[in-house]
Amino acid sequence: MKRNSPGSLEATSEENSIYENMAGMPVRFSYKNLQTATNNFSKKLGQGGFGSVYEGVLPDGTQLAVKKLEGIGLK
């Protein structure tokens, strides 16, 4: 881990690659990949306090739900 700014920690690329290969660990996707998986966020499953949830399918057939955050950090 390295310090990005006082009081915050950021994982190094080496640490990220270790976590990517561990079962059950969160996976990061690019926005473009999420658009593709959700067919441009076309099938809305529901809505919560911070945004809408969409159905998606990864290229390997894995089904997923994607929350698209809305209004975060805006006043």
Task: Describe this entry's structure for a reader.
The chain has two helices and five strands, in the order E-E-H-H-E-E-E. It has helices spanning 13-20, 31-37, and strands at 2-5, 8-10, 44-48, 51-57, 63-69. The strands form two sheets. Strands 3-4-5 form a three-stranded antiparallel beta sheet. Helix content is 20%, strand content 35%. It has one domain: Phosphorylase Kinase, domain 1 (2-Layer Sandwich). It has 75 residues and is an alpha+beta fold. Keywords: ATP-binding, Kinase, Membrane, Nucleotide-binding, Serine/threonine-protein kinase, Signal, Transferase, Transmembrane, Transmembrane helix. ATP binds at residue 68. It is found in: Membrane. It comes from Rosa chinensis. InterPro entries: Kinase-like_dom_sf (IPR011009), Protein_kinase_ATP_BS (IPR017441).
Ends: how far apart?
A: 32 Å
- Into how many domains do the coordinates divide? 1
Task: Tell me what the CATH architecture is.
Answer: 2-Layer Sandwich
Name the CATH superfamily classification.
Answer: Phosphorylase Kinase, domain 1
CATH class: Alpha Beta
Overall strand count: 5
- The value of Rg in angstroms is 15 Å
- What is the count of DSSP helices, taking H or I runs of 4+ residues? 2
- Output the structural class: alpha+beta
Mean pLDDT: 81
Strand order of the largest sheet: 3-4-5
Low-pLDDT parts are: none
CATH topology grouping:
Phosphorylase Kinase, domain 1
Helix content: 10-25%
What is the H/E order? EEHHEEE
Approximate strand percentage = 25-35%
Sheet having the most strands: 3 strands, antiparallel
Shape: globular
